[in-house]
Protein backbone atom coordinates (compact mmCIF):
# COMPACT_ATOMS: atom_id res chain seq x y z
CA UNK A 1 0.00 0.00 0.00
CA UNK A 2 1.42 3.37 -1.01
CA UNK A 3 0.95 6.66 0.77
CA UNK A 4 1.58 10.17 -0.54
CA UNK A 5 1.98 13.52 1.09
CA UNK A 6 2.34 16.90 -0.65
CA UNK A 7 5.14 19.31 0.29
CA UNK A 8 6.45 22.56 -1.12
CA UNK A 9 9.38 20.68 -2.67
CA UNK A 10 7.35 17.92 -4.26
CA UNK A 11 5.56 14.73 -3.30
CA UNK A 12 6.84 12.11 -0.89
CA UNK A 13 5.80 8.57 -1.81
CA UNK A 14 6.50 5.56 0.36
CA UNK A 15 5.30 2.00 0.77
CA UNK A 16 6.05 -0.94 3.05
CA UNK A 17 8.31 -2.78 0.63
CA UNK A 18 10.14 0.22 -0.84
CA UNK A 19 10.47 2.20 2.37
CA UNK A 20 10.23 5.74 1.00
CA UNK A 21 11.48 7.55 -2.09
CA UNK A 22 11.33 11.13 -3.31
CA UNK A 23 9.48 12.16 -6.41
CA UNK A 24 10.60 15.76 -6.79
CA UNK A 25 8.46 17.72 -9.22
CA UNK A 26 10.28 21.05 -8.86
CA UNK A 27 13.86 21.42 -10.05
CA UNK A 28 16.82 22.98 -8.30
CA UNK A 29 16.49 21.07 -5.02
CA UNK A 30 19.73 21.03 -3.02
CA UNK A 31 20.86 18.97 -0.05
CA UNK A 32 19.75 21.37 2.68
CA UNK A 33 16.24 21.45 1.25
CA UNK A 34 16.07 17.66 1.22
CA UNK A 35 17.18 17.49 4.85
CA UNK A 36 14.50 20.05 5.72
CA UNK A 37 11.94 18.02 3.80
CA UNK A 38 13.05 14.85 5.63
CA UNK A 39 12.59 16.61 8.97
CA UNK A 40 9.11 17.84 7.99
CA UNK A 41 7.80 14.42 7.05
CA UNK A 42 9.61 12.18 9.56
CA UNK A 43 6.51 11.87 11.73
CA UNK A 44 4.49 10.64 8.76
CA UNK A 45 6.74 7.67 8.03
CA UNK A 46 5.30 4.16 8.51
CA UNK A 47 5.62 2.88 12.08
CA UNK A 48 8.42 0.39 11.32
CA UNK A 49 10.55 3.26 9.97
CA UNK A 50 10.45 5.49 13.02
CA UNK A 51 13.65 4.09 14.47
CA UNK A 52 15.63 6.08 11.87
CA UNK A 53 18.06 8.61 13.32
CA UNK A 54 17.16 12.24 12.59
CA UNK A 55 20.40 12.78 10.67
CA UNK A 56 19.94 9.70 8.49
CA UNK A 57 20.02 11.67 5.26
CA UNK A 58 23.28 13.36 6.25
CA UNK A 59 24.87 10.00 7.01
CA UNK A 60 24.07 8.63 3.60
CA UNK A 61 24.81 11.47 1.25
CA UNK A 62 21.13 12.32 0.91
CA UNK A 63 20.03 8.87 -0.24
CA UNK A 64 16.73 8.11 1.56
CA UNK A 65 17.04 4.34 1.03
CA UNK A 66 20.57 3.79 2.35
CA UNK A 67 19.80 5.49 5.64
CA UNK A 68 23.02 4.84 7.53
CA UNK A 69 26.65 4.05 6.73
CA UNK A 70 29.35 3.02 9.20
CA UNK A 71 33.03 2.45 8.64
CA UNK A 72 33.99 -0.98 9.94
CA UNK A 73 37.64 -1.68 10.81
CA UNK A 74 38.77 -5.30 10.89
CA UNK A 75 40.58 -6.78 13.83
CA UNK A 76 43.52 -7.38 11.48
CA UNK A 77 44.47 -3.71 11.58
CA UNK A 78 43.54 -0.15 10.56
CA UNK A 79 44.36 -0.85 6.91
CA UNK A 80 41.48 -3.32 6.70
CA UNK A 81 38.54 -0.93 6.44
CA UNK A 82 35.07 -1.64 5.09
CA UNK A 83 31.75 0.14 4.74
CA UNK A 84 28.65 -1.15 6.54
CA UNK A 85 25.55 0.14 4.77
CA UNK A 86 21.98 -0.08 6.10
CA UNK A 87 18.98 -0.04 3.74
CA UNK A 88 15.21 0.04 4.09
CA UNK A 89 14.30 -1.78 0.88
CA UNK A 90 15.45 -4.66 -1.29
CA UNK A 91 15.20 -3.17 -4.75
CA UNK A 92 18.16 -0.74 -4.55
CA UNK A 93 20.32 -3.82 -3.93
CA UNK A 94 18.87 -6.07 -6.63
CA UNK A 95 21.90 -6.06 -8.97
CA UNK A 96 24.41 -6.35 -6.12
CA UNK A 97 22.31 -9.05 -4.47
CA UNK A 98 22.02 -11.19 -7.58
CA UNK A 99 25.71 -10.80 -8.40
CA UNK A 100 26.58 -12.09 -4.93
CA UNK A 101 24.14 -14.99 -5.41
CA UNK A 102 25.93 -16.11 -8.56
CA UNK A 103 29.46 -15.73 -7.19
CA UNK A 104 29.17 -16.35 -3.44
CA UNK A 105 27.83 -18.76 -0.84
CA UNK A 106 24.14 -18.85 0.11
CA UNK A 107 21.07 -21.04 0.14
CA UNK A 108 18.01 -20.74 -2.09
CA UNK A 109 16.06 -19.02 0.68
CA UNK A 110 18.39 -16.00 0.44
CA UNK A 111 17.61 -15.67 -3.27
CA UNK A 112 16.37 -12.18 -4.14
CA UNK A 113 13.20 -13.46 -5.83
CA UNK A 114 12.29 -15.63 -2.84
CA UNK A 115 12.50 -12.79 -0.31
CA UNK A 116 10.97 -10.15 -2.56
CA UNK A 117 7.93 -12.29 -3.44
CA UNK A 118 7.51 -13.36 0.18
CA UNK A 119 7.38 -9.74 1.37
CA UNK A 120 4.85 -8.83 -1.31
CA UNK A 121 2.38 -11.69 -0.88
CA UNK A 122 2.24 -13.20 2.62
CA UNK A 123 0.56 -11.99 5.79
CA UNK A 124 3.92 -12.33 7.54
CA UNK A 125 5.43 -9.88 5.09
CA UNK A 126 2.73 -7.31 5.85
CA UNK A 127 4.12 -6.82 9.37
CA UNK A 128 7.77 -6.62 8.37
CA UNK A 129 10.02 -3.74 7.41
CA UNK A 130 12.89 -4.98 5.24
CA UNK A 131 16.24 -3.69 6.57
CA UNK A 132 19.03 -5.41 4.61
CA UNK A 133 22.62 -4.66 5.63
CA UNK A 134 25.60 -4.76 3.26
CA UNK A 135 29.29 -4.99 4.07
CA UNK A 136 31.41 -3.75 1.17
CA UNK A 137 34.90 -2.59 0.37
CA UNK A 138 35.69 1.07 -0.28
CA UNK A 139 35.74 0.13 -3.96
CA UNK A 140 32.06 -0.89 -3.74
CA UNK A 141 32.51 -4.67 -3.85
CA UNK A 142 29.89 -6.42 -1.71
CA UNK A 143 31.37 -8.98 0.68
CA UNK A 144 28.28 -9.78 2.71
CA UNK A 145 24.54 -9.13 2.58
CA UNK A 146 22.43 -9.74 5.67
CA UNK A 147 18.73 -9.99 4.69
CA UNK A 148 17.38 -8.60 7.96
CA UNK A 149 14.00 -7.15 8.79
CA UNK A 150 11.97 -5.84 11.70
CA UNK A 151 8.82 -7.82 12.43
CA UNK A 152 6.15 -6.37 14.68
CA UNK A 153 4.47 -9.09 16.77
CA UNK A 154 1.77 -7.42 18.81
CA UNK A 155 3.73 -4.49 20.20
CA UNK A 156 7.08 -6.29 20.15
CA UNK A 157 9.65 -5.37 17.49
CA UNK A 158 11.91 -8.27 16.56
CA UNK A 159 14.99 -8.28 14.36
CA UNK A 160 14.70 -11.35 12.12
CA UNK A 161 16.06 -12.98 9.02
CA UNK A 162 13.82 -12.34 6.01
CA UNK A 163 12.37 -15.33 4.20
CA UNK A 164 9.40 -16.60 6.17
CA UNK A 165 8.04 -19.88 7.44
CA UNK A 166 8.98 -21.89 4.34
CA UNK A 167 12.61 -20.68 4.46
CA UNK A 168 14.24 -23.64 6.17
CA UNK A 169 17.77 -22.18 6.13
CA UNK A 170 18.07 -18.57 7.25
CA UNK A 171 21.39 -16.79 7.10
CA UNK A 172 23.37 -14.20 5.12
CA UNK A 173 24.82 -14.16 1.61
CA UNK A 174 28.61 -14.47 1.72
CA UNK A 175 31.24 -13.74 -0.89
CA UNK A 176 33.97 -16.34 -1.15
CA UNK A 177 36.52 -13.71 -0.11
CA UNK A 178 34.81 -12.62 3.10
CA UNK A 179 35.93 -15.69 5.06
CA UNK A 180 39.56 -14.79 4.32
CA UNK A 181 39.16 -11.09 5.04
CA UNK A 182 37.22 -11.35 8.33
CA UNK A 183 38.04 -13.39 11.41
CA UNK A 184 35.50 -14.88 13.83
CA UNK A 185 36.18 -11.92 16.09
CA UNK A 186 35.40 -9.58 13.18
CA UNK A 187 32.03 -11.23 12.62
CA UNK A 188 31.16 -10.77 16.29
CA UNK A 189 32.21 -7.11 16.17
CA UNK A 190 30.25 -6.69 12.96
CA UNK A 191 27.12 -8.10 14.56
CA UNK A 192 27.50 -5.76 17.55
CA UNK A 193 27.70 -2.79 15.16
CA UNK A 194 24.54 -3.95 13.40
CA UNK A 195 22.61 -4.42 16.64
CA UNK A 196 23.68 -0.96 17.82
CA UNK A 197 22.14 0.59 14.71
CA UNK A 198 18.77 -1.07 15.40
CA UNK A 199 18.41 0.57 18.79
CA UNK A 200 14.60 0.57 18.82
CA UNK A 201 14.02 -3.19 18.69
CA UNK A 202 12.79 -5.30 21.62
CA UNK A 203 14.29 -8.66 20.68
CA UNK A 204 16.45 -10.56 18.22
CA UNK A 205 14.88 -13.73 16.80
CA UNK A 206 17.12 -15.56 14.34
CA UNK A 207 15.61 -18.96 13.56
CA UNK A 208 16.67 -22.03 11.56
CA UNK A 209 20.27 -20.97 11.10
CA UNK A 210 22.34 -23.72 9.44
CA UNK A 211 25.46 -24.82 11.28
CA UNK A 212 27.50 -25.07 8.07
CA UNK A 213 27.75 -23.14 4.80
CA UNK A 214 29.34 -25.25 2.05
CA UNK A 215 31.72 -26.81 4.53
CA UNK A 216 32.42 -23.56 6.41
CA UNK A 217 31.12 -22.98 9.92
CA UNK A 218 28.37 -20.36 10.02
CA UNK A 219 29.97 -17.26 11.61
CA UNK A 220 26.60 -15.97 12.85
CA UNK A 221 26.02 -18.81 15.31
CA UNK A 222 26.71 -16.92 18.50
CA UNK A 223 26.89 -18.01 22.12
CA UNK A 224 23.37 -18.65 23.33
CA UNK A 225 22.18 -20.30 20.12
CA UNK A 226 20.12 -23.43 20.75
CA UNK A 227 19.34 -26.40 18.49
CA UNK A 228 16.17 -26.07 16.44
CA UNK A 229 13.56 -28.77 17.21
CA UNK A 230 14.32 -30.53 13.91
CA UNK A 231 17.29 -31.01 11.59
CA UNK A 232 17.61 -30.89 7.80
CA UNK A 233 18.51 -33.83 5.56
CA UNK A 234 20.01 -34.23 2.10
CA UNK A 235 21.40 -36.86 -0.27
CA UNK A 236 24.29 -36.77 -2.74
CA UNK A 237 23.32 -37.69 -6.30
CA UNK A 238 26.60 -39.12 -7.53
CA UNK A 239 25.45 -42.38 -9.12
CA UNK A 240 22.72 -43.82 -11.34
CA UNK A 241 19.10 -43.98 -10.20
CA UNK A 242 19.22 -47.76 -9.87
CA UNK A 243 22.36 -47.63 -7.74
CA UNK A 244 20.91 -44.82 -5.66
CA UNK A 245 17.61 -46.61 -4.93
CA UNK A 246 19.30 -49.97 -4.29
CA UNK A 247 21.69 -48.35 -1.86
CA UNK A 248 18.96 -46.57 0.12
CA UNK A 249 16.02 -48.98 0.28
CA UNK A 250 15.61 -52.67 1.06
CA UNK A 251 14.79 -55.33 -1.50
CA UNK A 252 11.33 -55.91 0.01
CA UNK A 253 10.58 -52.18 -0.18
CA UNK A 254 11.59 -52.08 -3.86
CA UNK A 255 9.38 -55.05 -4.69
CA UNK A 256 6.44 -53.43 -2.94
CA UNK A 257 6.94 -50.23 -4.93
CA UNK A 258 7.10 -52.19 -8.18
CA UNK A 259 3.76 -53.82 -7.36
CA UNK A 260 2.25 -50.39 -6.63
CA UNK A 261 3.51 -49.05 -9.95
CA UNK A 262 1.94 -51.99 -11.81
CA UNK A 263 -1.38 -51.37 -10.05
CA UNK A 264 -1.31 -47.71 -11.04
CA UNK A 265 -0.53 -48.69 -14.64
CA UNK A 266 -3.62 -50.94 -14.67
CA UNK A 267 -5.76 -47.90 -13.78
CA UNK A 268 -4.23 -45.60 -16.41
CA UNK A 269 -1.04 -44.66 -18.19
CA UNK A 270 1.51 -43.51 -15.63
CA UNK A 271 3.70 -40.62 -16.73
CA UNK A 272 5.85 -37.91 -15.15
CA UNK A 273 5.54 -34.33 -16.33
CA UNK A 274 7.44 -31.13 -15.55
CA UNK A 275 5.42 -27.91 -15.86
CA UNK A 276 6.63 -25.82 -18.79
CA UNK A 277 3.56 -24.08 -20.17
CA UNK A 278 1.14 -21.67 -18.51
CA UNK A 279 -1.67 -24.24 -18.55
CA UNK A 280 0.56 -26.93 -17.02
CA UNK A 281 1.63 -24.52 -14.30
CA UNK A 282 -1.89 -23.46 -13.39
CA UNK A 283 -3.22 -27.03 -13.32
CA UNK A 284 -0.37 -28.30 -11.16
CA UNK A 285 -0.43 -25.33 -8.80
CA UNK A 286 -4.18 -25.64 -8.25
CA UNK A 287 -3.83 -29.36 -7.57
CA UNK A 288 -0.74 -28.96 -5.39
CA UNK A 289 -2.32 -26.36 -3.11
CA UNK A 290 -5.54 -28.36 -2.77
CA UNK A 291 -3.66 -31.60 -2.05
CA UNK A 292 -1.28 -29.99 0.42
CA UNK A 293 -4.05 -28.19 2.31
CA UNK A 294 -5.91 -31.50 2.62
CA UNK A 295 -2.81 -33.17 4.08
CA UNK A 296 -2.41 -30.39 6.67
CA UNK A 297 -6.02 -30.91 7.70
CA UNK A 298 -5.69 -34.67 8.03
CA UNK A 299 -2.77 -34.43 10.47
CA UNK A 300 -4.31 -31.49 12.33
CA UNK A 301 -1.53 -29.04 11.40
CA UNK A 302 -2.05 -25.35 10.72
CA UNK A 303 -2.32 -24.68 7.01
CA UNK A 304 0.00 -21.77 6.05
CA UNK A 305 -1.16 -21.94 2.44
CA UNK A 306 -4.62 -20.71 3.36
CA UNK A 307 -4.14 -18.91 6.66
CA UNK A 308 -0.93 -16.96 5.95
CA UNK A 309 -1.19 -16.29 2.23
CA UNK A 310 1.53 -18.74 1.19
CA UNK A 311 -0.70 -19.92 -1.66
CA UNK A 312 -0.23 -16.45 -3.21
CA UNK A 313 3.48 -16.64 -2.52
CA UNK A 314 3.87 -20.03 -4.21
CA UNK A 315 1.82 -18.90 -7.22
CA UNK A 316 3.63 -15.59 -7.66
CA UNK A 317 7.13 -17.00 -7.18
CA UNK A 318 6.42 -19.83 -9.64
CA UNK A 319 4.97 -17.45 -12.20
CA UNK A 320 7.99 -15.17 -11.94
CA UNK A 321 10.77 -17.77 -11.87
CA UNK A 322 9.58 -20.98 -13.56
CA UNK A 323 11.08 -19.87 -16.87
CA UNK A 324 14.55 -19.19 -15.42
CA UNK A 325 14.57 -22.53 -13.60
CA UNK A 326 14.63 -21.32 -10.01
CA UNK A 327 11.28 -22.95 -9.23
CA UNK A 328 10.49 -26.51 -10.34
CA UNK A 329 6.95 -27.86 -10.55
CA UNK A 330 6.08 -31.40 -11.57
CA UNK A 331 3.42 -34.05 -11.30
CA UNK A 332 2.66 -37.75 -11.70
CA UNK A 333 -0.34 -38.52 -13.90
CA UNK A 334 -2.35 -41.74 -13.82
CA UNK A 335 -4.35 -41.53 -16.98
CA UNK A 336 -5.78 -38.00 -16.94
CA UNK A 337 -5.64 -37.72 -13.16
CA UNK A 338 -2.89 -35.76 -11.45
CA UNK A 339 -2.20 -38.21 -8.61
CA UNK A 340 0.83 -36.49 -7.02
CA UNK A 341 2.59 -33.14 -7.28
CA UNK A 342 5.82 -31.57 -6.07
CA UNK A 343 7.14 -28.00 -5.88
CA UNK A 344 10.78 -27.24 -5.29
CA UNK A 345 13.71 -24.94 -6.01
CA UNK A 346 16.86 -25.37 -8.06
CA UNK A 347 19.79 -23.28 -6.83
CA UNK A 348 23.56 -23.75 -7.17
CA UNK A 349 23.34 -27.41 -8.25
CA UNK A 350 21.04 -28.19 -5.33
CA UNK A 351 17.40 -29.28 -5.52
CA UNK A 352 15.16 -28.22 -2.61
CA UNK A 353 12.21 -30.60 -2.18
CA UNK A 354 9.74 -28.28 -0.45
CA UNK A 355 6.08 -29.10 -1.11
CA UNK A 356 5.21 -32.69 -2.08
CA UNK A 357 1.55 -33.70 -2.09
CA UNK A 358 -0.74 -36.46 -3.38
CA UNK A 359 -4.42 -37.27 -3.74
CA UNK A 360 -6.10 -38.70 -0.67
CA UNK A 361 -8.33 -41.14 -2.58
CA UNK A 362 -8.21 -44.75 -3.78
CA UNK A 363 -4.94 -44.07 -5.62
CA UNK A 364 -3.13 -43.23 -2.39
CA UNK A 365 -2.90 -46.92 -1.43
CA UNK A 366 -0.44 -47.34 -4.32
CA UNK A 367 1.92 -44.60 -3.07
CA UNK A 368 1.98 -42.24 -6.07
CA UNK A 369 4.05 -39.81 -4.00
CA UNK A 370 6.90 -42.35 -3.70
CA UNK A 371 6.86 -42.94 -7.43
CA UNK A 372 6.91 -39.20 -8.13
CA UNK A 373 9.87 -38.77 -5.79
CA UNK A 374 11.87 -41.36 -7.75
CA UNK A 375 11.07 -39.51 -10.97
CA UNK A 376 12.30 -36.25 -9.39
CA UNK A 377 15.53 -38.03 -8.39
CA UNK A 378 15.96 -39.11 -12.00
CA UNK A 379 15.22 -35.61 -13.33
CA UNK A 380 17.87 -34.15 -11.01
CA UNK A 381 20.47 -36.68 -12.14
CA UNK A 382 19.71 -35.98 -15.80
CA UNK A 383 20.09 -32.24 -15.21
CA UNK A 384 23.36 -32.27 -13.32
CA UNK A 385 21.98 -31.65 -9.83
CA UNK A 386 24.52 -32.73 -7.22
CA UNK A 387 22.54 -32.52 -3.97
CA UNK A 388 18.92 -33.45 -3.27
CA UNK A 389 17.88 -31.42 -0.23
CA UNK A 390 14.85 -32.60 1.73
CA UNK A 391 15.23 -29.43 3.87
CA UNK A 392 14.06 -29.28 7.50
CA UNK A 393 12.00 -32.02 9.10
CA UNK A 394 12.67 -35.41 10.62
CA UNK A 395 10.06 -37.44 8.75
CA UNK A 396 10.99 -41.08 8.26
CA UNK A 397 11.15 -40.95 4.47
CA UNK A 398 13.72 -38.13 4.64
CA UNK A 399 16.05 -40.02 6.93
CA UNK A 400 15.69 -43.20 4.80
CA UNK A 401 16.77 -41.45 1.60
CA UNK A 402 19.38 -39.09 3.05
CA UNK A 403 23.06 -39.55 3.79
CA UNK A 404 23.75 -36.15 5.39
CA UNK A 405 22.12 -34.16 8.18
CA UNK A 406 22.44 -30.47 8.91
CA UNK A 407 21.88 -29.07 12.39
CA UNK A 408 19.81 -25.90 12.61
CA UNK A 409 20.05 -23.36 15.41
CA UNK A 410 17.85 -20.61 16.88
CA UNK A 411 19.14 -17.49 18.56
CA UNK A 412 16.90 -15.31 20.74
CA UNK A 413 17.95 -12.27 22.73
CA UNK A 414 15.95 -9.55 24.49
CA UNK A 415 16.80 -5.85 24.71
CA UNK A 416 13.71 -4.64 26.58
CA UNK A 417 11.17 -5.91 29.11
CA UNK A 418 8.67 -6.50 26.31
CA UNK A 419 11.32 -8.45 24.44
CA UNK A 420 12.19 -10.48 27.52
CA UNK A 421 8.57 -11.58 27.86
CA UNK A 422 8.46 -12.57 24.18
CA UNK A 423 11.76 -14.49 24.31
CA UNK A 424 10.72 -16.32 27.50
CA UNK A 425 7.51 -17.46 25.82
CA UNK A 426 9.41 -18.69 22.77
CA UNK A 427 11.95 -20.60 24.87
CA UNK A 428 9.16 -22.30 26.83
CA UNK A 429 7.36 -23.36 23.64
CA UNK A 430 10.56 -24.63 22.01
CA UNK A 431 11.58 -26.61 25.11
CA UNK A 432 8.15 -28.21 25.28
CA UNK A 433 8.27 -29.04 21.57
CA UNK A 434 11.67 -30.73 21.86
CA UNK A 435 10.48 -32.72 24.88
CA UNK A 436 7.37 -33.90 23.05
CA UNK A 437 9.24 -34.83 19.85
CA UNK A 438 11.75 -36.90 21.81
CA UNK A 439 8.99 -39.00 23.40
CA UNK A 440 7.00 -41.21 20.97
CA UNK A 441 4.09 -41.47 23.42
CA UNK A 442 3.90 -37.72 24.00
CA UNK A 443 4.34 -37.04 20.28
CA UNK A 444 1.44 -39.32 19.35
CA UNK A 445 -0.80 -37.75 22.00
CA UNK A 446 0.17 -34.24 20.86
CA UNK A 447 -0.76 -35.02 17.25
CA UNK A 448 -4.18 -36.30 18.30
CA UNK A 449 -4.75 -33.23 20.47
CA UNK A 450 -3.64 -30.93 17.65
CA UNK A 451 -6.02 -32.63 15.22
CA UNK A 452 -8.90 -32.32 17.67
CA UNK A 453 -8.19 -28.66 18.45
CA UNK A 454 -7.34 -27.35 14.98
CA UNK A 455 -10.16 -28.94 13.06
CA UNK A 456 -12.77 -30.98 14.86
CA UNK A 457 -13.35 -28.52 17.70
CA UNK A 458 -13.22 -25.48 15.42
CA UNK A 459 -15.61 -27.10 12.96
CA UNK A 460 -17.97 -27.85 15.83
CA UNK A 461 -17.83 -24.20 16.91
CA UNK A 462 -18.48 -23.13 13.32
CA UNK A 463 -21.59 -25.30 13.06
CA UNK A 464 -22.83 -24.02 16.43
CA UNK A 465 -22.72 -20.38 15.33
CA UNK A 466 -26.08 -18.93 14.25
Characterization of this structure:
By secondary structure, the chain is of the alpha+beta class. The chain has three domains: 2-47, no CATH class; 66-229 and 408-436, 3-Layer(aba) Sandwich (Aminopeptidase), CATH 3.40.630; 239-385, 3-Layer(aba) Sandwich (Aminopeptidase), CATH 3.40.630. It contains 16 helices and 23 strands. The protein has a seven-stranded mixed β-sheet with strand order 17-18-19-20-21-16-22, sandwiched between helices. It has a six-stranded mixed β-sheet with strand order 6-9-10-12-23-15. The protein has a five-stranded antiparallel β-sheet with strand order 4-5-7-8-11, sandwiched between helices. Helix 13 (368-382) links the parallel strand 20 and strand 21 (387-392). Helix 4 (112-121) runs antiparallel to helix 12.
